[in-house]
Design brief:
This protein has three helices and ten strands, in the order E-H-E-E-E-E-H-E-H-E-E-E-E. Helix 1 (about 10-25) packs across helix 3. A hairpin with an 8-residue loop joins strand 4 (about 65-80) and strand 5. It is about 20% helix and about 45% strand. The strands form two sheets. Strands 1-2-3-4-5 form a five-stranded antiparallel beta sheet. A five-stranded antiparallel beta sheet has the order 6-7-8-9-10. With about 220 residues, the protein is α+β, with helices and mostly antiparallel strands. The protein folds into two domains: about 1-95, Nuclear Transport Factor 2, Chain: A, CATH 3.10.450.10; about 100-215, Nuclear Transport Factor 2, Chain: A, CATH 3.10.450.
Length: about 220
Amino acid sequence: RAMELPPGRFPAARAAAVAVAYLRYLRGGPGSGLQLRELRRARRQDIDDVGHKYYLELELEDVLDKDRTVNCTAEVLYHLGSKTSAPDVQVTVQGELRSTEEADKEFYNRIRSLEKELVAENIPDSHGNVPPELEPIHLLAWVASGYVIWQNSTENTKFHLAQVKHVKQVKRSDEDLQFDFVVLLHEMVSQEVLPWEVTLLWHPQRGARVPQSRAAGAGS
């Protein structure tokens, strides 16, 4: 039996952060970014010998179109005693997300036609500003860090993308765009800021995938 949790409580908020991160990885791109507007309802079920399962009802907003919200239900299962396996996440979005097809194509063609590979750092800058031409890159960093957050979250963590320290586009022989990111993830529980290296491949038709990601050592 699942127990109701006050939505304002930490365990519920931490599970919601994982669900949103997973959804960003799954459905995000250079033309859309989803963020949590409200956690409406949360329940937790303790499954013997398996782990803790959270049932969530969320309202999400599109960062590029704040008036547009979608409701979403999510299940997040944290495996007992496991530090290595990612939580199992299932997300169902009710209603339609804004179509980004045009914006995606435009961004893709713009990056493909660059003479020199794109390189940028400190997004947002120390004043919290993101230059408009780097907004799509920032949103792709959300996608990339969404994967990292989902893979590395436990019931006791809550990660948030603080900044893109560095991003470098890598030319490829196939159709994908490749971006090598160094992102700073802020872990809200311990207040640690962790640098993470993550490679993102993206294509307008195929979406995103992360072939590799690792915690960046202090030395690098």
